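Here is one chain, start to finish.
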Amino acid sequence: MEEQVIDIRLLLVALIATSSIGFQVGRYSTKESFAVHETINPATVVPSGEHLLLDMNGIDASFLGSEERLIKTMVSATESLGFTLVSCGCFASESDSFACLSASQEGRMSLYAWPERGVLLMDVFSYGNESLPILDVVVDLFKVGTNVTTTWSLDYRGKTDEPFRQLARDVLSPRLATVKEELLTTRTDNHKIDIWEVLDIDSVLSYEAATEYNLKPDDPRWTNNDLAQPVQLLFVDGEGIYSSDPEELLENELDTHPALLSHPNPQEIGIISTGEINSEWSCHKDPVLLDIIQNHFPNAFNCSDLIGRANNCMEDDIVTWVPEEGSQWFIDRYNSNTSAGTRATPFDVLFVDAETPRRAEDLTYYVDSLMRSLSPDGILAISLGISPTILHPNAEFGHFAQQKELIRTLEASPFVATMLIYDDDNALNEVSSEVSPSAWMLACKSNICRHHFYAHPEVIDAKIEERTIQRKSQKPIFEYYDGVVHQRLQVAPKTYETAYCRRDPTPVECAFRWLDPTLPIFEFDHDPDQSAFAITQDDCDTNAGLDCKRQTHVTATVDIPNGSYIMPSSFSKSLMLSDEESMQKILSKATGIEQEEVSTNVKDYGHTSVDGGDSVVLEIGPSAFIRTVSVEAEANIGRWAPPVPKGTRPKYSPVYDNHAFSMSAFMVATRDIPKGTEVVKYSL
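Its structure:
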């Protein structure tokens, strides 16, 4: 990995949930409660603010049962926040609880208290855009007791331009966290940095922790978070860029290795990133930020267990950090006027996990610059962000319009030969644990990446063993990724297949995603009474000797109407490999037959896939005995789906990616086949 290029722009993430607490109506206990003492100036009211929800347990009963102390504490809290008090009062309900409310020009505070249970529920709303230390003030004043526990939620209300939305969404807003502590908040010359420690109420202990504590089967700590470890989250300008959660490592492996394993021999790796920090990704080289990371996240750049690598990943000789705006770096060096660039060696794989230009013209210019930076078999691995669902509206008009525009731009690029898409359904929100699959697109300069991407799990495992650095501890180099995991990613996401088929006009292959259940099926059976076909073989010329080649024939034993499926059970047993050479090698190894003889079998019984690619389908069932003709008009059965002329397959088609086998393998009658007629197929 010779060079990594960092994009320092930080993405803003939208949507903040809001909530509130209702009050039970009771009788007033003070005559002057809620009396308006001052007139609020409308000019001072800003249509936005902060809303704190607070649940406290274990508070001293004598404190919660004293109306005087509650009112005094609320007044103190109001004054500590710098609010101008308008009114304050409490009332008692019939359920032995108190409800109190204070109103001020800058906001309001309300609470519900159950003295006997030691429970206090409170919410505080402040007007305006100024961030206030609401939580610390309120907790310090109301935390009366020796064993008080607190859960809380803080929402930004009415702020459409709030720059800390991900921090609010992932840390501040979720209420059911038993640990939610701010470890650090500071500013550098360019950024605001926050570090939080969070433990969700649903978190459970890890496998390693369970082994260490040697828990008994009936121990309740198996299912609660008493022994679970909090995670530390790093935010730069409100954007989360690092988590100590071990699940982050799984996500990083899924993000990076599909692209690396799809290249025949990746040596030069480039990364444009918003700054996610780990040994496989990158971070903006801000000295203050890096110092904070080293102190609070010592494992972020830890490569000490890797043989032949520096202890600190950032200090390794093979890594070059470029603290510049990534997109502009590539545009300056690889635009149409400087096609050779200024870098001696092109990139084999280039990762882009950063915001792309919004304007179509800028996006085209950017994508072409990225593709020019690649070697002849180079791969651009670009993050598409959060995956849509099949319920989302047309991408032309919805939140995923930028994704659609990026995909279309890649399709239109003259430097892109083929495209592959996969998503990471392990991507979880660290706090809310909501599944948020994120998608990646591989844009390849040659079709060879398709052959490597669709390799069998055993081949992927062999590549991993061959290419990766080993650990000093002899632990597996990957925690999660292997050939089986890679095989799962070979299925294009259904959401993108569905979106692709909503294009106007609808791509022709979309009509062949499912077999038609209304069409009749005619099968071969070894029982002649049950079979719709009979297989016969010509006699040999007695003078032919060992060179005799007997021609087989398949004859219909019943009338078969046009459009019927022919031997679908037999055709479904066919083998499909990414290219003819691979098929020859695998069959030769499996059977012990010389590769030249296997090649003859592939030629006789195999055919290319309908998607116009290099994949080969080899028939191994009774369908292999159907005679092949070279003139299409002489055939009476053909492919279920229309074939694509070789070399004209769409660069991007999740439909062909997912359904090429069924389209290539299944055959249908191309005209009525009367009983006693030989079944003949056309050789493509």
